[in-house]
Amino acid sequence: MQTSIIATVITIPQNIEVGKLKNHNLKSIGDKTGTFIFVNKNKNPAQIEINYDASSLPPSNNRINEAKKLLNNLIENEKKLYCLEEKKKKKNVVGFLDEFNKYGSNKKYVSKYHKEVSVKKEKQRSKQEINSTIKSYMEGNWEDEPDGYETDEYY
C-alpha cells in the first residue's frame, strides 16, 4: 500500500474554479515531479496538497519545490485567464450612452439599442391606442363610421 506524507499545501484563490485546475495538468505535473497532487475541496478555501509519491524516487525537497513552482505557475496562468474573461465581459457590456464614440466601435450595440427602443416605443403607442379605443367605447363616445365614410341609410 502506498503511503504519502503531506509535504506542502497551496491554497487556491476564490476566483479560480477548482474544476479547471483538477482537469488541467495536475496529473502531468505529479508525474513529471514524482509527487502525488490532490485537490482538497472540503477545506475553505480549497487547497492543493502535494505529497511524496512512495512508488517513485525517495522523498526530496527539490521535487516538492519543483511541483510547487509548477502549480504556482498554473494558478497564475488561470488567474490571468480569469482576468481576461472578466475584461471581455466588461468590454461586451456597452454603455449605450457612448453612442457618439469617435471611433464607432460600438455601432453594432448602439444600433441594437436603437432597435430595441423603437420596438418598445411602438408597442407602447399601440397599447395606448388600444386602451383609448376601449375607453372611448366603454364611455359611449364610439362613432359607428370613421370620418369620411358615407353610408346609405334605409328607413
Describe the structure.
The protein has 155 residues and is mostly helical. It has 2 domains: 6-92; 96-139. It has 4 helices and 3 strands; from the N terminus they run E-H-H-E-E-H-H. It has helices at residues 18-22, 26-33, 61-92, 107-139, and strands at 6-11, 35-40, 47-52. Strands 1-3-2 form a 3-stranded antiparallel beta sheet, covered by helices on one side. A hairpin with a 6-residue loop joins strand 2 (35-40) and strand 3 (47-52). Helix 2 (26-33) runs antiparallel to helix 3 (61-92). The longest helix has 33 residues, at 107-139. The chain is rod-shaped, with a radius of gyration of 34 Å. The N and C termini lie far apart (110 Å). The model has no long low-confidence stretch (mean pLDDT 73).
TL;DR?
The protein has 4 helices and 3 strands; from the N terminus they run E-H-H-E-E-H-H. With 155 residues, it is mainly alpha-helical. It has 2 domains: 6-92; 96-139.
